[in-house]
Structure to design on (906 residues):
């Protein structure tokens, strides 16, 4: 084999480099894949990424700008604007999205490139409405940020001074123009709620819907070349798209690997030899095919020889994520190698099971991976920044690692953001993080005129091809909440007009998107919306009467008023794909984007950052059900205490609700239950503000995320009360069966030593089940246990096997609100930092029981082994996993510790 090079050096603008003869055709849209050619040049690639020029309409601003990138980032980097996230800058910088911007690049093109028969200009991401000119000639228009655009440009190129310009129309203006042109009828909502301080008509532009504002994020309708730009030149053929997925024939226990290629071919080629090889599975086959002129799809099926030996890809917690190498060589009839592809392939099956349940009026709704029912544990993903070029690979990976480190096995890529970058899905593949992939439509009606459908179809087609090779992607869902919006009439559509919107709904999500999915990706299930009743929605014409029906499909459920410690408020859904509560991020997150006067819960700033109507008041109201509100006379202290208390409240609420869903796995009550998924809203943040996230902007874990480590643990004891009885369930997501008993310790709030311990009989806990293991009247339990009362005592409990080994975390159950607890004393906690050979450690000492002990190290990046915990011992050592080199001194200096009692100290 001749020498191969893995990467082409990216060509900086204005700098001419010869494209090496031996080269890689690097297709940036295939993260998991390498394509290369040896010797004979098939395709040459010249990157046009790097420094471009940028100016606004009247050229009052002119500056260098990086590609990939965006206008806001360029303006900030060149000092024209400050941090867009600072204070009220989202309002101050509104003008940026109202202006038109032009990107321009001047570059030389080698003779070698120009001598090819076909030269394409490939733009992987144009945000959004733009016209593209090369050397003064219009080459095309764009209207969709989620599409790759390809234009033939060979005859426009010259040697030295090529000028490529991309004129962006203000996205806000574009959306308004499109709305105006759609005069036939309104497509609601016209504008976001005032509290979001956003722009109107986002549903008319194929752009991240949250970029015009959301209830957790600012309005920054950006513009720019947010992905790479390049020239691709070739003579014979070009590999346009590539995908591979496994199919399993259960009857014969046989795997087939489907390999698909889209080829752009300049001339008919007979007898092209395509060899597929998975050496580790001793599977190899050569296919001979005639390649037509033009763009066409070619599909090959490789039978896997030793199907029994195939190591399967499993979700996190259920097994490994082994991959295999697939080698593809494409040769001409006379045996000359045209190009080679090397790709990772994974083997797994996915089914969405919706079938009648004995004793229940509805249908089941759960995923089976490799034949095994899997309880989905996870959260919902939103864009990690308003400006995608600001998301570093490191930050992205850290967020995904944070998900699996909290025992999650799934993320839903929510439909109001972006189809994530390749690295996201590659990492999910590697980590065993399943992806519930929405198409990017959210909380709105959408137009269905021809132009709109045409661009959406291309978007959907491309995204399916880009993502279908990923084992992590387990389901396509056509939109977020649009079935519910129509069914429950969010937009007050008069009855006589409803049929228009129903028709549009079916046109877009069923006739177009679903049809494309079925045609291009038969390998995974499709849902027309989330939430949806699934098969039942289909039966009702795709818009069910009540898409939130807990007997069918998935549900989204929010309630901020009811006491979230009371599980009876929650719907016993088949699968909960959204639920949650807001909290504020830490003071450290807010410091860089605020000034002193902002740092109070009643400040204009606190109000401005809150994009959910009454959100700040709702948090306090929910908190005050169980806790006195902080009342320190020091304003800053009161503020940080309030931030902390919102996090405590959120963590407790989501814990209670998640535990409810997990313990409902094996039960049917009144036909409801068999719950098979809990994905709380939301994992991450887009900026520093209050939101439902468990990880704040910058990557720091909120208390909720620490709680998630436990409430998503593979084995978990959960307690709840029903009609005066205490019940404890043992939940196991493991594959093997266990025999467990629960050990309950009764503590007085006033005493670090338990006053009583109870042990249940050993019970069988089958893999993948939730079973009751303990049941006792609370009154009887308390009388029998040291003359305790609800107000003076609390319970801690854990699971043990017959050898006394603990399984899963220690959990606890409060018998009263902490505000009513008798005997809770200031614990006088001290925390000292030291290090052993491998890690930084914090020794925590307490003189009393302390709820919600919170270690905070400001802006030192990293996370604790555990945090927000209930301190039931005098000493506890907690590790700190720093993300950067951090010394003991640094950590000591940054470390503060509080627990609940600190909020009310004089
Ligand atoms: C040019 O445009 C900028 C940004 O929209 C505006 O602030 C400025 O007043 C304009 N200048 C002139 C001379 O029109
Ligand atoms: C942006 O371009 C549109 C269309 O050409 C034009 O109507 C509008 O006035 C321009 N905006 C500015 C700020 O120049
Ligand atoms: C039980 O507790 C009550 C109230 O705290 C107390 O008055 C009573 O003396 C206790 N009885 C015993 C047997 O300790
Ligand atoms: C904490 O310290 C205060 C003041 O020194 C003391 O009064 C209190 O008893 C201590 N708390 C405990 C639980 O020992
Ligand atoms: C350092 O401390 C951690 C946490 O206590 C422990 O797991 C680890 O084994 C220790 N390492 C060494 C080298 O002692
Ligand atoms: C980490 O910090 C220590 C102490 O501050 C220093 O001696 C060491 O060189 C640093 N290591 C790296 C890799 O920066
Ligand atoms: C603060 O709240 C606590 C708990 O409700 C209460 O005990 C204390 O008296 C309050 N302090 C002030 C200054 O209001």
């Amino acid at each position: 084999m001749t020498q191969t090079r893995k990467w082409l050096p990216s060509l900086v603008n204005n700098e001419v480099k010869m494209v090496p003869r031996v080269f890689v055709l690097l297709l940036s849209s295939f993260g998991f894949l390498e394509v290369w050619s040896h010797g004979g040049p098939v395709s040459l690639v010249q990157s046009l990424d790097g420094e471009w020029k940028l100016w606004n309409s009247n050229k009052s601003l002119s500056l260098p700008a990086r590609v990939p990138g965006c206008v806001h980032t360029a303006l900030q980097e060149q000092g024209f604007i400050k941090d867009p996230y600072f204070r009220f800058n989202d309002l101050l910088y509104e003008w940026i999205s109202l202006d038109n911007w032009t990107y321009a690049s001047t570059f030389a093109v080698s003779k070698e490139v120009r001598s090819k028969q076909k030269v394409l200009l490939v733009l992987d991401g144009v945000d959004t409405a733009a016209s593209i000119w090369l050397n003064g000639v219009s080459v095309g228009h764009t209207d969709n940020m989620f599409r790759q655009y390809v234009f033939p440009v060979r005859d426009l190129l010259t040697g030295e001074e090529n000028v490529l310009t991309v004129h962006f129309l203000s996205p806000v203006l574009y959306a308004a123009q499109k709305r105006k042109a759609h005069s036939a009828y309104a497509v609601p909502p016209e504008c976001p709620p005032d509290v979001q301080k956003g722009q109107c008509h986002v549903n008319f532009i194929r752009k991240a819907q949250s970029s015009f504002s959301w209830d957790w994020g600012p309005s920054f309708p950006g513009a720019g070349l947010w992905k790479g730009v390049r020239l691709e030149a070739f003579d014979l053929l070009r590999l346009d798209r590539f995908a591979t997925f496994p199919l399993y024939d259960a009857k014969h226990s046989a795997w087939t690997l489907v390999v698909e290629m889209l080829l752009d071919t300049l001339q008919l080629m007979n007898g092209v030899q395509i060899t597929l090889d998975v050496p580790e599975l001793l599977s190899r086959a050569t296919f001979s095919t005639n390649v037509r002129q033009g763009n066409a799809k070619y599909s090959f099926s490789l039978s896997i020889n030793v199907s029994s030996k195939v190591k399967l890809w499993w979700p996190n917690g259920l097994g490994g994520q082994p991959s295999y190498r697939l080698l593809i060589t494409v040769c001409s009839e006379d045996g000359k190698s045209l190009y080679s592809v090397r790709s990772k392939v994974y083997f797994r099956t996915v089914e969405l099971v919706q079938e009648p349940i004995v004793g229940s009026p509805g249908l089941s709704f759960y995923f089976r991976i490799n034949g095994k029912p899997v309880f989905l544990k996870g959260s919902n993903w939103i864009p990690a920044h308003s400006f995608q070029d600001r998301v570093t690979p490191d930050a992205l990976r850290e967020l995904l690692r944070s998900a699996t480190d909290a025992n999650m096995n799934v993320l839903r890529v929510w439909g109001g953001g972006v189809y994530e970058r390749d690295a996201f899905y590659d990492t999910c593949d590697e980590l065993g993080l399943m992806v519930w992939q929405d198409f990017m439509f959210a909380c709105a009606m959408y137009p269905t005129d021809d132009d709109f459908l045409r661009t959406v179809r291309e978007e959907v087609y491309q995204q399916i091809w880009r993502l279908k090779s990923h084992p992590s992607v387990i389901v396509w869902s056509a939109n977020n909440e649009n079935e519910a919006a129509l069914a429950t009439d969010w937009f007050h559509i008069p009855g006589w007009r409803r049929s228009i919107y129903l028709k549009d709904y079916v046109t877009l999500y069923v006739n177009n998107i679903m049809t494309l999915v079925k045609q291009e990706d038969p390998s995974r299930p499709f849902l027309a919306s989330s939430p949806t009743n699934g098969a039942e929605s289909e039966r009702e014409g795709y818009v069910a009467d009540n898409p939130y029906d807990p007997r069918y499909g998935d549900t989204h459920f929010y309630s901020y008023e009811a006491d979230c410690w009371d599980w009876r408020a929650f719907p016993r859904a088949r699968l909960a794909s959204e639920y949650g509560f807001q909290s504020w991020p830490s003071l450290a997150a807010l410091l860089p984007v605020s000034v002193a006067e902002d740092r109070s819960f009643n400040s204009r700033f606190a109000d401005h950052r809150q994009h959910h109507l009454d959100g700040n008041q709702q948090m306090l109201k929910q908190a005050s059900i169980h806790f006195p509100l902080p009342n320190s006379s020091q304003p800053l202290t009161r503020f940080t205490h309030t931030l902390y208390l919102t996090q405590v409240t959120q963590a407790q609420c989501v814990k209670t609700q998640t535990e409810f869903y997990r313990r409902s796995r094996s039960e049917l009550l009144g036909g409801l239950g068999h719950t098979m998924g809990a994905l709380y809203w939301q994992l991450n943040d887009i900026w520093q503000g209050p939101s439902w996230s468990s990880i704040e902007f910058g990557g720091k874990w909120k208390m909720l995320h620490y709680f998630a480590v436990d409430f998503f643990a593979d084995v978990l004891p959960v307690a709840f009360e029903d009609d005066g009885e205490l019940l404890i369930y043992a939940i196991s997501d493991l594959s093997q069966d266990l025999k467990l008993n629960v050990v309950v310790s009764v503590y007085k709030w006033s005493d670090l030593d338990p006053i009583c311990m109870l042990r249940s009989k050993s019970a069988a806990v089958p893999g993948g089940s939730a079973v009751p293991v303990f049941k006792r009247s609370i009154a009887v339990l308390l009388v029998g246990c040291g003359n305790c009362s609800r107000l003076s005592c609390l319970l801690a409990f854990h699971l043990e096997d017959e050898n006394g080994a603990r399984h899963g975390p220690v959990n606890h159950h409060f018998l009263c609100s902490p505000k009513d607890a008798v005997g809770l004393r200031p614990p006088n906690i001290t925390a000292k930092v030291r290090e052993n050979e491998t890690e930084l450690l914090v020794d925590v000492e307490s003189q009393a029981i302390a709820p919600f002990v919170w270690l905070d190290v400001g802006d030192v990046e990293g996370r604790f082994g555990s945090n927000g915990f209930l301190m039931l011992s005098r000493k506890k050592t907690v590790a700190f996993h720093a993300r950067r080199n951090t010394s003991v001194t640094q950590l000591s200096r940054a470390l503060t510790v509080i627990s609940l009692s600190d909020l009310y100290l004089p």
Remarks:
- The longest strand covers residues 237-249.
